[in-house]
Every structure is written in structure tokens, then in C-alpha cells.
Amino acid sequence: MGLAADFVLVILAGLAGGLIARALRIPLLVGYVAAGILVGPHTAGPKVVQLADIEHLAEIGVALLLFALGLELSFRDLQPVRRVALIGGPCQILLTTIFGALAGSLWLGMPVAESIWFGAMLSVSSTAVVLKTLAAGGFTSTLASRVMIGLLVIQDLAVVPMLVILPQLNDLDQLAGKLGRAIGLAVVLLAVIVLLGTWLLPKLLRLVLTWGSRELFLVSVVAIGIGVGFATEHAGLSFALGAFVAGLVLAESEFSHQALNEVVPLRDIFGLLFFVTVGMLLDPQYALTHAPQILGVVLLTFIGKALIIGGLTRTFGYVNMAPWLAGLGLAQIGEFSFVLARTGASSHMISKSTYDLILTCTVLTMAISPLASSLALPLGRLWQRWLGPSQVAPPVTPLREKLQDHVIVAGYGRTGRAATGVLRKAGIPHLVVDLNHPVFRELSDQGIPAVWGDVTGEQILLAAGIARARVLLLTVPDQTVLLLAAERARHLNPGLAVIARAVRPSHLKALQKRGVKAAIQPEFEAGVEMVRRALLEFPGEERSIVSLVADVRTEFYGKEVAVSPPVS
Question: Is the pLDDT of residue 470 over 90?
């Protein structure tokens, strides 16, 4: 079976590790890494044979993680943290490299050039781990998360000059020319991606949408993400960095929310593949033999990086929990350290012992990172109780205008149009979610707030501000969509009032089980209203009409889902 058998083994091992991690209430990522150790080449039992091929597939997982991040962020979201990213990012890399180089030289006895390699490998954090941890904790929209992501982007970009500078440490004469060419190539390539992306990608996706194929839309979105990553890799940059830029470019279009909703399942599967692969690299025998040294490097890395990154975050004006979250959240060693380590080993700039040490410490810090991140809030609260909370406001302007206590109208058919018209005249803030792209364009032209996408998707609901909404009107005529959207919306906002359309009378109880506050069966309501109007033509029946209609509604709807009678 070859690669197919290895792929199945990795998925099954990841599932087992994830189930155990969930049962133990520890992050899934730790379970995935542990599963990788068990199916890796250094332990007994079932083994992945074609490890190199699986590693190549795992690179797609990192690329999809970054592509999804780009879709979720957009350039505007990074604007508020540009100072700490553009100035603090290089400072963090330099300070961490110096810190690691001193530790390597003075404590581990490395030569000067090798100790600089060691410090550089410690300076980069794991984008994959941080994104997974933020998503699992629901922190992707917080101020601290944007600081972390801004620093991660700079770290990922810094890998390019590192790959030019570090191999030239013994021959600095040619460094300036090579570095200039590398940076120039990077700037030109990224500019081309942005320019073509803002002009070509929206046109391509609009063309796909005219054919009405959701499957083809998914294929197009994935092809954009990994295709741009592939192009940047062949130009000498990072595969994952190209995917991230593609996501950022696509995030500026109206397709971003639905594209993110489609990509998330693929991202999670390939993300599992990446973290299991990380576990395969860990040699338990080496770890046991060099346990004191490895433990010392791991502790030194977490403490040193947390102090440097947390201190820089505080220096740039971010207070309260942001320095703790950023410091401990970015304290691990990142996956790009593997790239630097392999380059150093192949150029004979670092020894085998240093290569094994950094590899083991990288895997361990990545596995421990979610646990370390979970300590940020408790430690921050203890610090605040000791010194008192800071009164300084973070230097951030609002990211974008957000609706509050609004009504989300799912579906802009005849029912949705009528509901939106009433809300507009009543002056109640509202937003429409619809999967029909021409309808979305119509809403945008009319100045009606709208999100294009599938209302059953969690990312679409979050984009519509479900956590801040007061009411969700589900007007779509598909009962499967109604049930799934109601369930997910109530999960994201338990206090939300959901008013849904019942396609058939038999669907009323299913809606009630999913927390729907009121269900409306359009054909029944039309019949009741017609009869009510007819009864008004009979003098003397006005008083009995209200009670009569109420009795008919109670008989039809029962007590499971209540509806109020219309005003006469």
C-alpha cells in the first residue's frame, strides 16, 4: 500500500491520540504529538515507512493553517499591531538570538558560529502550534492574538534572510550581495502576489460562482492557497508564507468568510498530519540519555522567550493580560527551526549533537506549549493582584465597526426580504446572510450589511457577529440547514433568540430540541390569517376571533414552540 497505508496509520493514530487527550482534558495537539511518537521510527509497534513523503504532506497542513489565518485576518486587522510587529518583531529575533547564542557558547560549550545558529533556531516560534492553541481557546479575535500573529509573520519572514546569513558566517565577504538579492526577490514576488490576487482571484471566483458549483468553489479556494505557496517555495521563499499572503489577499474580497468555512475541515485534517509528523521526529532514547541537558534547554527557552516577548509587548504599550498571553504563547521553538537545523547540518555548520538537541527541544516545546499557554491568565491575575491592574489603555483603535444587539436574517428570499424591510423601517440593526452571490451583490449595492456564505458554517456565523446578536431569523426553506444553523448558533451564543421557519409541521419538535424560541409554519400561518380576515366580515365575531385563532395555534404548534398571534 505504501504511502496510502502510512496515511491511514497516521490518521488512526491521531484519532486515538486525540480521543485520549480529550478524555484527559489536555490539548488535542499533545495527543497528536504523542501518537506520532508511537508510530515513529524510534519506537516499537506499527511504523510509518515513508516518513519523508508524509512530511511533505504535512507541509500542506502548515500551509492550510496559514492560509486560513490569512482569510480570517486581512491586512486591516494587522494595522493596529504594525508597530509592535515591524519594530518589536526584529528586536525580539535579535534579542532571542543573542540570548540563545550566549547560552550555547557559555553553557553548552558550542563554537561561536554554531552558538549563533542555535540562538537563531530558538528565536522563531511555531505558527502552527500558536494558531491551533488560539483556535482551541477561542482567542483568535483578541488583541493579544493579533500581537502574536504580527510577531509570527515577522518571524516567518525573517527565516529567509536567516537562510542567507547563517551559512555565510565563515565567509562574510559575499553576504551583502546575497542578502540583497534574497530580500529583493521576496519583495517583488510578494508584490506580484498581492497585485494579481486583488485583480485576478476575485474574477476567477465570480466566474466559478456563475456555474453554481460549491464543490468547484472549494477546489478553487484550495488551489489558490497551496498554488501560491508552491510558487513562493520555488522562488526561494517559504511554502507556508506564500499561502498566508494568498489568504490575506483573498480576505479583502467578499469571498473570505465562505472560503474560510470551506477550508477549515481540510485544515484540521492536514493539521493533524503535521502534528503527528512532529511527534515522529522525537527519539525517546536520545531524550532519556540527555534528559538533564534537554530539560535545561526547554526551561531556558520558555523562561527566556517569555520574558523577552512579554517585555517587548509591554514596552509597546500593551498591558493587562496581553504580555502574559503573548510571552507564554510564543515561548516554544517553531517548525521553521527544522528548516534551519537541516540547512545547518547539511552545510556542516552545526554538529550532530546540536542537531539532535534542537530537534528534540523543538518537539517538546511544541507539545508543552498549549499547557504553558494555559498558565498565562492565572499568572497574569496573580501579577495583577500583587501590583494592581494597569490603568494604561492599549494603543489600539477599533478594528472595524461591529453591530451589537442586532438581528441576523438568514436567507434573502421572499420571507427574508419582508423581514429585512420591516427591520429597516423599525431602525433595528440587522445583517443578512445568504449563500447566493448575486443576492449578496444586490445587498451590498443597497448598503444592507451582509455576509456571503453558508449560515450553517461556524465561521460564517462568527463573521455575522453571532456572539453579539440578539435574534437570529432563519427564513431558508431547507429544514436540514435550519436545524444545523439553529444548533450551531445556540452553541456559539446560548442567550440568542432563534426564530425559525418550519418547512413541515413534523419539524416543530426537532426545532424545539435545538433551542428555537419560536417556529413559524408559513402555509399554516397563511391559512390562519386568511380565515381571520374572513371572520372579520361577520359582525359580532370580533371578540371571539382572537381566542379562536389562539386555540387553533395551540392545537397546531402545541406547547413545544410558542408563537404569538399577529396584531389585528
Answer: yes
Residue 564 confidence class, pLDDT cut points 50, 70, 90: very low
Better-predicted residue by pLDDT, 24 or 333: 333
CA dihedral 477, 479, 482, 486 (to 10 degrees): 160
- CATH code of the domain containing 419: 3.40.50.720
**% helix / strand / coil in the chain, to the nearest 5?**
70, 5, 25
pLDDT at 438 over 80: no
Judged by phi (left if over 0) then psi (alpha if -120 to 50, else beta), residue 317 lies in left
> In the structure grid, which three cell numbers stand for residue 137, read together?
481557546
* CA gap 145, 152 in Å, rounded: 10
- From the list 308, 297, 307, the residue with the least C-alpha distance to 94 is 308
Q: 56 with 111, same domain?
A: yes
User: Residue 47: what residue type?
Assistant: K
Q: Are 261 and 298 part of one and the same domain? A: yes
pLDDT tens digits, one per residue of 48-67: 877 777 877 777 877 787 78
Q: Rounded CA gap, 350 and 1, in Å? A: 37
Residue 242 lies in domain: 3-386
Order of strands, edge to edge, in the sheet holding 450-452?
A: 450-452, 430-434, 407-410, 471-474, 497-501, 518-520
